[in-house]
Amino acid sequence: PLVLGIETSCDETGIGIVRGTELLANIVSSSMEEHARFGGVIPEIAARAHLEAFVPTLRRALDTAGIELRDVDAIAVTAGPGLSGALMVGLSAAKGLALAAEKPLYGVNHLVAHVSVGLLTPASHSAGSAGGASGMASLPENTGALLVSGGHTEILRVGSLTSDVQLLGSTIDDAAGEAFDKTARLLGLGYPGGPAIGAAAASGDPTAFRFPRGLTMPKFEGSAQAPGPHRHNWSFSGLKTAVARAVEQFEAAGRPVPVADIAASFQEAVVDVLTGKAVRAAREHGISTILLGGGVAANQRLRELLAQRCEAAGIELRIPDVSLCTDNGAMVASLGAQLVAAGIAPSSLQIPADSSQPVQRISV
Ligand code: ATP
Ligand code: MG
Ligand code: FE
What is the pTM (predicted TM-score) of this model? Predict the structure, then answer.
């Protein structure tokens, strides 16, 4: 199916177009720079920016794919989770388009969309290739997903992207991306923190500081036979505090803060515990393929260490192109195409925005 995907849950206005698993267009307009001076996303600014960017972004996506709205089989839109006002802009626009063009509407889960992006392949331009309902690549058996984003950090079992997603573990406090953003602020590296820390870390020593790996003590993890309460969960708030202490010590001593070493050591701590726990959860739950998704999946060190540890554990790993990790419309279109192909009923045109939609609720 040919599906238009609309994403407005945070500060990216994203419009993507896919044919089955084939990526035809992915245009993103971000209001990130408007939020940078506040050190975080301001919901009202984000919503207003979506309103302004929506139509030009849609126009560019349709032109890139070489289609018109009337050509699409369905319209998919992020219904949640995310910022309410931001979600409402995309949902309202999607409903208007669906109504006017007489297309089915699919309100989808942003988190499952982050994972679904892993199914996409670049446009092949060869007639009759992957794309139609029959050309949908199916998910391997025993698939799991590591979702690492600005607001979520979860390890999932994915029985089906359209009907069966289960939570195996998650963060009990900060999300991985949030930890990057807060730590970057502490280090004076600006917003968003993920790319800034990654860049600073490149010239630092990851072994300079031994920062804590949250929830890895035996009382939390237990053993495979007797799992502790947080065996597959993460915690990043202690790590953030440890970084703050380290910075304070240098400042109190009147010495320059070794920003690159702290950034590299922080990044190593996050990536070590993310990959270690994800691979172990996968092994213990019989997962043989992991899809990586979410903005933090753009992190080079995470991509590298996860690939190493998956290979060592005999787990197949699928990592999306960096451009598809942070919020975009292609991921929403990808999940929409899966829903259409699976014969799932479209959404009502009265669906609300659900700012805290849980990952198990794939479509609304
Ligand atoms: P959610 O998907 O949970 O609703 P979100 O949509 O705000 O949250 P994403 O767009 O998926 O989050 O990801 C943004 C996050 O990814 C930010 O916290 C950002 O710092 C982080 N990030 C982006 N690039 C990198 C990178 N190269 N390394 C580490 N983190 C990164
Ligand atoms: Mg964003
Ligand atoms: Fe996201």
Answer: 0.96
